[in-house]
Amino acid sequence: MTITIYHNPECGTSRNALAMIRASGETPVVIEYLKNPPTREKLEFLIDAMGMSVRDLLRQKGTPYHELCLDQFSWGDEELVDFMMAHPILINRPIVETPKGTKLCRPSELVLDLLDNPVASFTKEDGEVITHSR
What we know:
Layout: E1 4-7, H1 12-23, E2 29-32, H2 40-50, H3 54-57, H4 77-86, E3 95-98, E4 101-104, E5 121-123, E6 129-131
Parallel strand pairs: 1-2
Antiparallel strand pairs: 1-3, 3-4, 5-6
C-alpha cells in the first residue's frame, strides 16, 4: 500500500501523523510540501479527494492569511488556489493519501482510519494517549 503524507516537520500534528503511520508498519512517501509543493493539478486533486472546499484547506495560523485579506469571501476557489500555490504555507497539513482515502489529518489520529493495520494505542508528543479500535 502506498501512503503519501504532505508533511511539515515543524508541525506537531504533522509529526504525530507521520509517527502513527510508521508505528503501523508502513513506510510512507514523505513530501515536505513547503520545500516541494504539489502542482496545481495535484492540489486540486487532493482537495477534491478530501471532499472539502478550497477555503476549508486554508491555514490561517502562522501564514499570510490575514495580510492577504483571505478572510474576505469575495475570493473564488481559483484565486484561493493561486494564493496556495504562491504561498504553500497556506495549505493546511498534514494531508495523507492512501488507497483507503485522502484526508486532512487534523487531529492527527484521523490518519488511523486510512491505515490497513493502525496501532491500537499511540502517545502523541504532548503526552495524549490515542486508542483506536477497528
